[in-house]
Task: structure prediction
Amino acid sequence: MAAPGANPPPTSSGVVGVEGRYRLRERPAVPLVVAGRRLLPVGPLRMYTCGITPYDVTHVGHAATFVWADLVATLAHATGGEALVARNVTDVDDVLTTAARTRGRPYDELALTQEFLFDRDMRALSVATPALTPRARAHVAAVARLAAALLDVGAAYESEGFVYFRGGDLPAAAGLSEEAALTASQEYGDQAGVPGRESPFDVPVWRPSGESDPAWPSPWGWGRPGWHAECAAMAVSALGSTVDVLLGGVDLAFPHHAYQAAMVEAATGSAPFARTTVHVGEVRREGRKMAKSTGNLVLVSELLERYSGAALRLALLHRPWSEPWECEERVFEDAARLLAELDELAGGPGVHSERHDAVLEALAAELDVPRAVEVARAEGREAARYLMDVLKLRRL
Result:
């Protein structure tokens, strides 16, 4: 551990992290509590973050999820632990294939280009590169093994080249009516009236490919993985049969996370798949969810032309993590002003003190950034310096 006042090495994102300068004593002063769960694993905090389908540009809705995930990992270090983060890339998906075909490009080439642009935006927002980045194309064999395991325990069945996971009980388990569950499923590409399914809530683990689709050999014929199965296989391959945190946007709660967890639990016999699930609040524009399908996007790259990466990061974090919010210009203007205020309060160089403990207590209790900001305002320079470092708002 670096001596007080010493400059620690940069993190993988190029930003000074709390691991060096502000690492606490061996016994954490406060527990990390997220979504009502005390996250005190004996080993590293194992977090699976649902990543991108790399077919288009990064918008604020994406960025909010990954900035919050980055804060959870940072706080794992700040409270005396470690974090092992896996963030997947879904580079086998029909929407990617369609986008590539429209642009006249191979799907894997388009995926690599868009992943590069995404990584550039994440660096600007000081989001650290995760330790593990599983990609769907590299886990097709793992999906086939998952399908075989589910068939073996009776949680799946074969039909006309498909392997379907039995999901009829998942809507009730998620607290949804069948109508609401069907609406949510269809929003993510599930089709009504698919032949061979025993239930409209059965989803493909493996499915046959057409002539223009990516395809791999399997015991059920040439085909490709289903979306939920891809994440299930990647998570197990990267982190094992259980994780401490499953994190993604609130729109992924059903069907994606519900099916991902159910597949893993059925195949491995370990439950629950996730000790806690963090669903980041929806980002809206003019009252509607920000999404590529609706076209109401605010792009990170365009905002970076007007605001610093630190101001954008603060705008995404200065709110309750689970609540929806409206993406308006004033949000970023307010964050830029708040950042300037914190920077002025932090002042020039100074020695480390223990006056940051109250800031950490606020952050470690449900990621309460607004309360941590108020504590820093009340406590003064050292608390403000610590807050800016743990939120990764400045470079030393």
Q: What stands out?
A: The chain has one domain: 37-309+320-326.
